[in-house]
Design a protein that fits this description.
The chain is an all-alpha fold. It is about 80% helix and about 0% strand. The chain has 16 helices and no strands. The protein is globular and about 55 Å long.
């Protein structure tokens, strides 16, 4: 996997994006699936490995925590001239870790492989975004990055329910094999099509710390962190919440994951026009309000019928996915003049994964303490309300 195995770093200025961009997006689709597929598999995994649901939830924690903490360190240590090799190796590690997860004989081994997959995924996405920009014409770089992020979103929104349908027919390992196969296909295509990539300047630790000293950036990142704790953390516990609402009767999580995904797609599409009309801080506040209301409605609907949760779950998905558009707008506005807007957005992605890990870990702890499921959903709504209050001063200033 040598950086010199291909030539031509920049694509000509054409209307079509290079095929490389779509291959990177295919890998990102697999990444999105891997991030949260274990959330839907929790009951199967708890039964297969004879562990509690709270312990099974730590599989999500291991992946997201490794992504949020391990991958930035790995990217920082990567030599500036090894971007192509780093991207390919990261995807290879991701593929191997998912295959090893499917073959894991014990829970501790599965936990370790999920963490390794998380590191590979985080490094791949960070380098993949840079690579997509590098192989595209300057006027197409925004579109290229959007395709990569759309691939990841599609993997989470569409790929996870599809993989769960497969798992219901062939067992939990089939879902992880599907992730590995898609990643392997993307890797094969990139080995063939990915050109040499230009070296990138190293970013010093002092510069990173300077970014984190920006109070406005810290406030934006904290809002993203709290929203991820509430939204992505609660996503980990959809299956147990359904089981509680159905009083132990068999009920498939798939329709509810589809509702969350459909909401996510709608939110991602509909937020665009609003982002051009409304100031980003105000739009973030409004979306956080919808998120808090949706999470508040979850335990109320669950108390009546599991099927009544479809509406708040769809609204929750829409708000959760839509929020990051104005959040990234605020970060770019705050740091573009300093030349590190892209770094600020990368930190925002880390905040999302760290929030997901914290939410999954905290929810698992609450289950160990025998908290009822409705109270877990209420706690997620409370965290979303905290984010809403934190965002209020910024919304009032514009």
């Amino acid at each position: 996997m040598s950086d010199s195995s291909s030539s031509g770093a920049v694509a000509p200025a054409t209307t079509a994006l290079p095929a490389t961009v779509y291959l990177i997006a295919m890998g990102a689709f697999a990444l999105g699936m891997a991030s949260y597929v274990t959330a839907g598999l929790m009951p199967m995994l708890a039964s297969a490995f004879s562990v509690s649901l709270a312990m099974a939830a730590q599989l999500v924690t291991a992946f997201t925590l490794a992504y949020g903490l391990g991958s930035p360190l790995a990217v920082a240590l990567l030599p500036a001239r090894a971007q192509r090799a780093g991207l390919l190796w990261a995807l290879a590690v991701f593929v191997l870790a998912n295959g090893a997860s499917a073959l894991a004989p014990g829970f501790s081994g599965l936990l370790a492989w999920r963490a390794i997959a998380g590191i590979g995924a985080g490094v791949y996405l960070a380098l993949g975004i840079a690579a997509a920009a590098g192989v595209s014409a300057p006027q197409q770089r925004g579109k290229a990055i959007g395709v990569i992020m759309g691939g990841m979103a599609g993997g989470t929104v569409l790929g996870v329910p599809l993989s769960l349908l497969l798992a219901q027919q062939l067992g939990w390992a089939a879902a992880l094999w599907l992730v590995a196969i898609l990643g392997a296909l993307a890797l094969a295509g990139l080995l063939w099509k990915l050109p040499a990539l230009p070296a990138v300047p190293a970013i010093s630790l002092r510069r990173k710390l300077a970014l984190l000293a920006d109070g406005q950036v810290l406030a934006i990142l904290l809002v993203s962190l709290l929203a991820a704790i509430a939204s992505l953390g609660m996503y980990t516990f959809i299956a147990p919440l359904l089981a509680w609402s159905a009083h132990g009767a068999p009920i498939s999580a798939t329709p509810f994951l589809w509702a969350w995904g459909a909401g996510g797609i709608a939110g991602s599409v509909l937020v665009g026009p609003w982002a051009d009309k409304m100031a980003a801080p105000k739009l973030s506040w409004f979306i956080l309000l919808l998120l808090a209301l949706a999470l508040c409605a979850l335990p109320l609907a669950a108390g009546w019928s599991a099927w009544l949760m479809l509406a708040p779950i769809a609204l929750w998905g829409a708000a959760g996915w839509a929020l990051q558009v104005p959040q990234n707008q605020q970060l770019l506005a705050a740091r573009t003049r300093q030349g590190d807007g892209n770094l600020a957005i990368a930190l925002n992605e880390s905040a999302l994964y760290l929030g997901s890990a914290i939410g999954a870990a905290a929810g698992g702890l609450l289950l160990l303490l025998d908290w009822p499921m409705w109270l877990l959903a209420a706690a997620a709504a409370f965290v979303a309300a905290l984010a809403l209050l934190l965002q209020l001063p910024a919304a009032r200033r514009v």
